[in-house]
Design brief:
CATH class of the largest domain: Alpha Beta
GO molecular function: acyltransferase activity, transferring groups other than amino-acyl groups
Structural class: alpha+beta
Pfam families: Acetyltransf_6
Number of helices: 9
Largest sheet: 7 strands, mixed
InterPro entries: Acyl_CoA_acyltransferase, BioF2-like_GNAT_dom, GNAT_dom, GNAT_N_AcTrfase_prd
Helix content: 25-40%
Radius of gyration: 19 Å
CATH topology of the largest domain: Aminopeptidase
Distance between the termini: 40 Å
Oligomer: single chain
Order of helices and strands: HEHHEEEHEHEEHHEEEHHEE
Length: about 280
């Protein structure tokens, strides 16, 4: 079977999403990106996630800045900069799309566009961070894109004044996307890295964190080789309506998932029903 070039895979995903994606460097376009991010993260103009002048500098320095357009409307954007050593890795700092176009897989198309661009510019991997409590993002990053989780970062960005993070500590999971790895190539072609938590549990996987009937976190002793770590259905709704419960989940995930990764365990992937699948080493 002939494997399509990354640029062709990206073009197919972009066509399927019904948007146009292009790299950006004009100040008017970058101002539009700033406004889009303010709208998505609900920050307001006094606390933007990024400014147009910084985006302009990044683009001029050869970094990646792109926008997804539905007709004339900017509906998604993504930017990243190169990381050490040299230009071998691109760090993707912010990617976001309007909620109304998520079902059209605009985010997936943006990441495939970024993958093709990074490969054309000599990078073999892309890294980024995300909130490991947000279930849809966990599935997107570890399943749909087949990125690898590499490090748990407690309160990585410090306090962030927006309506998504609210007062919650900004714990993040750092992921690495090896752009030509077989699992990534398959995922970009439409076959995600899928794991079945129920089947793994039936085969002996141990649950280390799960939700109670009331929606709170239950931390359990876990001594097995394969460990399942659960996350709530909708942490963003919890932050809005029950900040105390959301904080309990943050602490529990930091203790369990953060502790496993610090101890040398590896995240194999994410079951879209809400489980991180973590594998301990033989010696653990």
């Amino acid at each position: 079977m002939t494997t399509l070039a990354p640029a062709d895979v990206a073009a197919a995903a972009i066509a399927a999403s019904g948007v146009e994606i292009r790299t950006l460097d004009a100040i008017a376009d970058l101002e539009a990106v700033r406004r889009l991010y303010e709208h998505i993260w609900r920050t307001g103009a006094r606390n933007p996630p990024i400014t147009a002048d910084l985006l302009r500098a990044l683009a001029k320095a050869g970094s990646y800045v792109s926008g997804a357009y539905d007709g004339d409307e900017l509906v998604g954007a993504c930017f990243g900069f190169f990381a050490a050593p040299g230009r071998e890795t691109l760090h993707s700092h912010i990617a976001g799309v309007l909620p109304r176009v998520r079902a059209r897989k605009v985010g997936f198309a943006l990441k495939l566009h970024q993958r093709a661009w990074a490969l054309e510019h000599g990078a073999g991997a892309v890294t980024w961070t995300y909130d490991p409590l947000i279930r849809r993002n966990s599935w997107f990053n570890l399943g749909k894109l087949a990125a690898d989780a590499v490090e748990y970062l407690p309160d990585f960005y410090g306090p962030m004044d927006d309506d998504i993070n609210r007062a919650d500590p900004t714990d993040r999971l750092l992921v690495r996307w090896p752009l030509l790895a077989p699992a990534v190539t398959d995922a970009c072609a439409g076959t995600p890295r899928a794991l079945e938590g129920a089947a793994l549990r039936a085969a002996g996987a141990v649950v280390a964190l799960e939700s109670s009937a009331a929606g709170g976190p239950i931390v359990r002793p876990s001594y097995g080789r394969t460990v399942l770590v659960g996350v709530p259905d909708d942490i963003e709704a919890l932050r809005e309506h029950d900040a105390s419960l959301a904080a309990q989940w943050r602490g529990a995930l930091r203790e369990v998932l953060g502790g496993l990764l610090a101890g040398g365990a590896q995240v194999r992937g994410f079951d879209r029903e809400g489980w991180y699948v973590v594998e301990r080493k033989e010696s653990q």
